[in-house]
Amino acid sequence: MPADTLSVAGKIAIVTGSGRENGIGAAIARALARNGASVAIHYVSEEVTPRAQALAQSIRDEHGVAVAVVQADVSTPEGANKIVAETLQQLGVDHIDILVNNAGTGKMIPLTEVDYETIQRQFGANVYGPIFVTQAAVGLGKMPRGGRIINIGSVASKMGPAGLAIYGATKAAQDSLTASWARQLGHSHGITVNTIAPGPVDTDLTRSNPGVVEPLTKMQRMETRPGTVEEIADVVLFIASEKARWITAKYLAVDAGILGTA
User: Fold this and answer.
1) Checking CA distances to 238, which of 4, 34, 99, 170 falls within 20 to 30 Å?
2) Sign, CA torsion 13/17/19/23
3) Cα 156 to Cα 75, 76, 168, 199, distances in angstroms
């Protein structure tokens, strides 16, 4: 009998917010591609275009899989539909198997300084985005039975760190969506829906918010260091694989024990 693997060979995956080569999304795309999936790299800002294109080419060269590259705004239905439609077209396929809702934004800012635009931007990327892209992946993308929807959350949804009230609220909303969608899509489509919630991870976002990262690392029950993007990607790979077929509606904290068993 051959050894068990976490193969996702032949699967079609979209990873939103994956255009920056040093980010969690890029690491997830690489992990899925390394294990056989064709992937769509998605990004929003025009300035990220060369980085997204370079990442896509490096994945093609290293893993020999097809890679699509799509620029769109996840916070609108039109943008979400574009992501799915262009993925199908560029990869020459008729369905999406795996959706990783990774695109998001956050900023450490006191309540008294939060303005309307900041609230709209964070809820747009972190809440509207997963809603619209999931709708598009299930509908337009014809996600089949056994499909996977994986929301990238945050321990901030459970902890309420000072200065990240809006960000934490958006991630808490996403947690609620995970639970509801798991029931609905599990019964109607045979699709699993889970949240992977990183603790502090070494990315552009955490480097810009050291006031949050440093206290959190001190709460860890393992090494007091930020996690790596690869450590998050490995867990996503497991949930995307056939080995996780009986796991759904779960909030899985990948945080070196910050949340304990809560």
Assistant:
1) 170
2) negative
3) 21, 25, 5, 8
- Give a yes or no: residue 217 inside a domain: yes
Provide the annotated active-site residues.
167
Q: From CA 238, how far away is CA 6, in angstroms rounded? A: 6
3-class secondary structure, 118: helix
Find how far residue 19's CA is from the centre of its chain.
12
Exposed, middle or buried, 188 (CB in 10 Å: 0-12/13-18/19+)? exposed
CATH number of the domain enclosing 132: 3.40.50.720
Q: What residue type is 119 in one-letter code?
A: I
The mean per-residue pLDDT over the stretch 20-36 comes to 97
Q: Is residue 142 part of a domain?
A: yes
Backbone dihedral angles phi then psi of residue 132, each to the nearest 5 degrees: -70, -40
- For residues 69 and 57, what is the distance between their CA atoms, to the nearest angstrom? 10
Residue 160 pLDDT level (bands cut at 50, 70, 90): confident
The length of the chain is 262
What is the per-residue pLDDT across 163-199, written as a single tens digit (0 to 9) for each? 899 999 999 999 999 999 999 999 999 999 999 999 9
| Residue 152, beta-bridge partner list | 196
Structure tokens belonging to residue 61: 């060269």
Residue 107 lies in a domain: yes
Q: Beta-carbon neighbour count of residue 113 at 10 Å? A: 8
The number of domains in the chain is 1
Please tell me the chain's helix, strand, coil percentages from 3-state DSSP, rounded to the nearest 5.
50, 15, 35
CA distance 25 to 198: 12
- Is 261 within a domain? no
Q: Which domain holds residue 95?
A: 12-254
